[in-house]
Amino acid sequence: MPKVYNSIIVPAPIEHVWSRIRDFHDFSWAPSVITSCKKVGEGDGYSVGARRLLNNAFLDTLVAYSTIEKRMMYSMDEGPSPVSSREIHDYVGDLRLLPVTVNDTTFAEWSGSWEAGNTDAVEFMNGVYRSLLGDLAAEFGAKN
User: Fold this and answer.
1) Which of 23, 62, 117, 129 could form a disulfide with 6 if both were Cys (CB 3.0 to 4.6 A apart)?
2) What is the secondary structure of 55-84 as a DSSP string?
3) Max Cα-Cα span within the chain
């Protein structure tokens, strides 16, 4: 099972960071990676079952959501190569925030795992997650 893991320190309190990313349908904080985020179907961006289409290529479904844990998990139902449904399956992404209490910053971690016969998607997804986390930190004043 291929996996990716990326993390970053965001220079803001966890409540501020969570309030910026908590809507599954809002990726306006990631302009270098996400050019469009469209709501698919019914439901809001805070409820399990919410769906989105990113960059007209990635179709995701929210599978777990916790305001208390500051965490959301989603499936990637379709994507471009090398993460298309022909190449991988059972993709689960996990975005989680944790407080860094010593200086009131936030530790953000983003991971993904999936089933595939090869590891072709690892480098691709690591690049996506690194860029997304870089945009998140930059949203709060960190330099990329």
Assistant:
1) 129
2) TTTEEEEEEEEETTTTEEEEEEEE-STTSS
3) 45
- Model confidence over 43-91: pLDDT tens digits? 899 999 999 999 999 999 999 999 999 999 999 999 999 999 999 999 9
* DSSP secondary structure code for residue 44 in this structure: -
The CATH class that applies to domain 3-139 reads: alpha beta
Give CA separation, 61 vs 29, 88, 120, 132, in Å.
19, 16, 23, 18
Q: What is the pLDDT of residues 11-36, one digit of tens each?
A: 999 999 999 999 999 999 999 999 99
In this structure, what DSSP letter does residue 42 have?
Answer: S
In the chain, where the domains are located: 3-139
Query: What distance lies between CA 99 and its chain's CA centroid?
Result: 18
Residues 6+ apart with CB under 8 A from 133: 6, 7, 8, 108, 110
Report how far apart, in Å, the C-alpha atoms of 8 and of each of 35, 74, 81, 115 are: 22, 20, 26, 26
Per the document, the length of the chain is: 144
